[in-house]
Write a structure and sequence with these properties.
By secondary structure, the chain is mainly β. Helices cover about 5% and strands about 60% of the residues. The protein has six helices and 55 strands.
Length: about 850
């Protein structure tokens, strides 16, 4: 239709008359509002030209446009194009004054546009604004704000800032909001938390050993498991469903002393990022939560350090410049001295016994080291090393004094721990694009040796001997390469993307056994199966705010896991939103899916070196979890934050030991002992927190239901999960009385853990000379332990060169029940048989009474 040709020759004639004539010649309808052609005169000289060409010539420079729609031609007044205002990108790093440590979560505000951005984990920010006159404000909780002078910018500029620590911590000053308060109302994340080193240090814990995991246990929706242990069960999940990372590298064993302490040395930490409901697209591989622990880079300007001496351990931390302004180092070492403390105990026992000698020793060691180098304002590289090990040795030696000397020696030696080595390079590719390349190796391994030697000696010669020695080991090794990008094309739009590859090596269990009976020697070795697996990940995520009241976070994580010639795939979409009906209110909702390819086999409720990390093999499928969450948030006077978060999670392809798995042949495959299943959890978390002023802390309450169902467990029927802690209450208060004194206290109360309690037995007198009780099967986790509650208190006395900590764990000495066992009490007369029979009873087991502790930290 536009190719229809017309002829017309007019010079400076009224447009309305020209278009009336053109309507007759072309047969088109010309449609326009009154006034569009008023006072307009046009000229055109065209012979047999397309209609579109004629209109274009005639209307050029008149401010009137046209559109041809079938037999109609629409005429309209064009809006004059405004000249595009140039924009500039401001970027840089925000670091701590005096140390050069990166500060994450700093709010960067550009005036007069009031455009905001936040620094990432590396302290990097990027914000694009219209060119012209502007000034910047940098603000973060715990630091003095920094305001730049007004400047006129017409091109991109890198502005690096060093923030001094807050000089008015005790004053009621104008509050700018903490990173967690900003997350609560501004971000689209649900259930995320940033934990500073100072908060970890101020949380009272057992033996005064500050611990990031025990700090997180005070959050709603996080259960601790067994009393005093550094376990984590998030929103009804298992302990192996949490991904712990040290500088973005997975760590498989995070506990010392069976879980009494975590493997994270607080003296080496900078901050911790915790996610439990909505997850960034970057993270996958676990079902319940993600904990990224970032270590200190070390000061570029001067040397600093600390020495901490406590009742059970000591720690040393030193950091400073190697090449001032360019290269820094940070080294932290922690070691327990339980082995030293038990020496006099063993010596006293052995001096009181002539035949039996006992030796016991336990110690754990952590070493963190890091080197950081700045090539330029845009380029930085680092190398990090972590070594953590537990060692346990027990020897029980017996020698009887006679002509034939009877002897027996029992020895147990265990070693288990982690090694992590990583190196990375990050670079500001453009003012809007930040990239990081990482390579790493992480390893967890354990080794158990147990031997028993008994017999008789005559004149120093063994005339009879029985010797039994067993050695068992397991490990998992990972080689990792990853590339991550952070792109900020617009102040309201942030995009993250990247890819990674991991080469896994698994040895779930390898056991060797040696048996000697006088002159007969026999040995056996388990037919262990080691596995190699390749895992590939790629992800992209975006955070977008189309307008001030709405923010959307969405992403996709795709993974491949290849093992034994079989490839599993995982697609994990995530989406969440934040809507602000008012300035201090926020409503959030979200959905996330996670996939897990490795899991931990545990035979007890505490962390042991015999626990095995194993991959999905054979007919097993990857574990998956789908979770929906909804939350409401409110901030009051920029000091108090109120939140309520509800969630529902359903899990598939969970793995657990089947009923009576121990009856299977010991040389069988470990995978034959497991049964697949599914689970659900639902609940709601409430929290009120205060992050500023002399008194800070929070009150939290969580309501939880968690269930499991397995094909070959509990007869295939659903049952409550072990850590189905229906009600949980946490209170945490920190009071900075003065420059010299601080008090912190926490109280925890929760419904007891679930256990399986045998309530019925069958007596068969023909089994042996005694009446053995045969336990009858009962529903799984049929009994809930009594309500658990405990208060911990810590007093801190600041001195000129350090501080003292005086702590009370379980301050009012409530002996909580950790287990119930079936036993026998006194004899009673059975009236039906006339026989005396032992009375079966249940006994409660208690673990930890009140424990005082004291430590001193010297700062230099």
């Amino acid at each position: 239709m536009q190719a229809q040709r017309v002829s017309m020759n007019v010079q400076n004639r009224p447009a309305e008359a020209v278009f009336a004539e053109l309507m007759k010649r072309s047969g088109k309808n010309f449609i326009y509002e009154a006034g569009v052609l008023k006072s307009l005169r046009v000229s055109v000289n065209a012979t047999n030209q397309p209609l579109a060409k004629v209109l274009e010539t005639m209307l050029a420079g008149t401010g009137v446009g046209y559109k041809i729609r079938g037999n109609n031609v629409l005429l309209f007044r064009q809006t004059p194009k405004q000249p595009k205002q140039p924009k500039v990108t401001l970027s840089g790093f925000v670091r701590e004054e005096g140390t050069g440590e990166a500060i994450p979560g700093v709010t960067v505000t550009v005036f007069p546009s009031a455009t905001r951005a936040a620094t990432n984990v590396q302290g990097f920010y990027s914000v694009t604004v219209p060119a012209g006159d502007m000034s910047l404000t940098f603000s973060a909780a715990g630091y003095d704000s920094h305001h730049t002078e007004e400047m006129h910018l017409t091109q991109n500029r890198q502005i690096d800032v060093a923030l001094p620590e807050d000089s008015q911590m005790l004053e009621e000053v104008t509050v700018i909001g903490s990173p967690n308060q900003t997350r609560a109302v501004q971000s689209a994340e649900i259930g995320s938390l940033s934990v500073s080193r100072s908060k970890i240090l101020s949380t009272p814990v057992i033996f005064g050993e500050s611990d990031v995991i025990k700090t997180l246990q005070l959050e709603p929706g996080v259960s601790a498991g067994v009393e005093g242990m550094a376990g984590m069960y998030v929103h009804g999940g298992g302990s192996d469903e949490n991904l712990y990372m040290l500088d973005n590298i997975p760590l498989y064993q995070v506990n010392h002393f069976g879980g009494l302490f975590s493997a994270f040395n607080t003296e080496a930490l900078r901050n911790v990022e915790f996610y439990k409901s909505s997850f960034p697209a970057k993270y996958d591989g676990r079902l319940s939560s993600y904990i990224d622990v970032n270590t200190k880079d070390g000061s570029m300007e001067s040397h600093h350090g600390s020495v901490k001496i406590g009742l059970t351990s000591a720690a040393v931390n030193v950091d400073g410049p190697i090449w001032k302004g360019h290269t820094s180092y940070s080294v932290a070492v922690r070691r327990s001295w339980y082995d030293i403390l038990t020496l006099p105990v063993c010596a006293i026992f052995n001096s009181m016994s002539t035949d039996e000698k006992v030796n016991f020793g336990y110690a754990f060691t952590d070493i963190n080291a890091k080197i950081n180098h700045r090539f330029s304002d845009r380029s930085r590289a680092y190398a990090m090393f972590y070594y953590g090990e537990d060692y346990l040795s027990v020897t029980d030696k017996y020698e009887a004094t006679s002509s034939y000397k009877d002897y027996s020696t029992e020895k147990s030696h265990l070693r288990w721990g982690n090694i992590v080595a990583s190196a990375g390079w990050n670079y500001v590719i453009t003012p809007n694009l930040f990239g990081e390349l990482t390579g790493a190796f992480t390893r967890y391994a354990s080794r158990l040796m147990h031997s028993y030697d008994e017999g008789q000696e005559e004149d120093g010669v063994k005339v009879q001997q029985t010797f039994d020695k067993m050695v068992s080991k397991n490990y998992i090794h990972d080689w990792i390469a990853k590339l991550d990008f952070d792109w900020r094309p617009h102040p309201a739009h942030r995009v993250t993307f990247g890819a990674g590859y991991t080469r896994h090596s698994f040895l779930p269990s390898l056991t060797k056994r040696l048996l000697v009976n006088t002159d007969v020697v026999a040995s056996a070795e388990e037919q262990a199966h080691s596995y190699g697996a390749n895992e590939f990940n790629i992800y992209t995520g975006a955070d977008w705010s189309p307008f001030a009241q709405l923010r959307i976070n969405y992403g996709l994580h795709y993974s491949l896991f290849n093992i034994d010639g079989k490839t599993h795939q995982g697609l994990s979409p995530r989406a969440s939103f934040r809507f602000k009906p008012a300035e201090n209110w926020a409503i959030k909702g979200g959905y996330s899916r996670t996939v897990q390819y490795v899991h931990q086999l545990m035979q007890s409720s505490i962390s042991l070196p015999t626990d095995q990390w194993v991959p999905v093999v054979g007919s097993q499928k990857p574990q998956t979890a789908d979770k929906i969450a909804l939350g409401g948030y409110y901030t009051l006077n920029n000091a108090y934050t109120f939140s309520a978060e509800a969630y529902y999670k359903w899990m598939h392809n969970l793995l657990e030991y089947a009923d009576e798995y121990y009856l299977l042949p010991p040389d069988g495959e470990w995978s034959d002992k497991l049964t697949p299943g599914r689970g659900t959890s639902k609940g709601i978390d409430f929290k009120v927190s205060k992050d500023h002023g002399k008194i800070t802390g929070h009150v939290a309450y969580s309501l939880l239901w968690a269930d499991r169902q397995y094909a070959d467990k509990n007869g295939g029927l659903p049952f409550p999960a072990r850590y189905d802690n229906r009600h949980k209450i946490n209170l945490l208060v920190n009071w900075k009385i003065s420059d010299n004194w601080e008090i912190s206290a926490s109280w925890t109360g929760m419904s007891g853990n679930r256990i399986t309690l045998p309530t019925q037995v069958w007596q068969d007198p023909w089994l042996a000379p005694w009446n053995y009780d045969m336990l009858l099967r009962v529903p799984e986790n049929n009994y809930r332990l009594p309500f658990y509650h405990r208060m911990d208190v810590n007093f801190r006395r600041n001195t000129k060169h350090g501080y003292w900590d005086f702590s009370l764990y379980n301050a009012y000495c409530n002996l909580n029940t950790i287990a119930v066992v079936r036993d026998y009490g006194d004899y009673y007369l059975d009236p039906t048989t006339g026989d005396y029979t032992l009375q079966p009873v249940f006994k409660r087991l208690h673990l930890i009474p009140i424990i005082p502790s004291v430590s001193y930290t010297w700062l230099f």
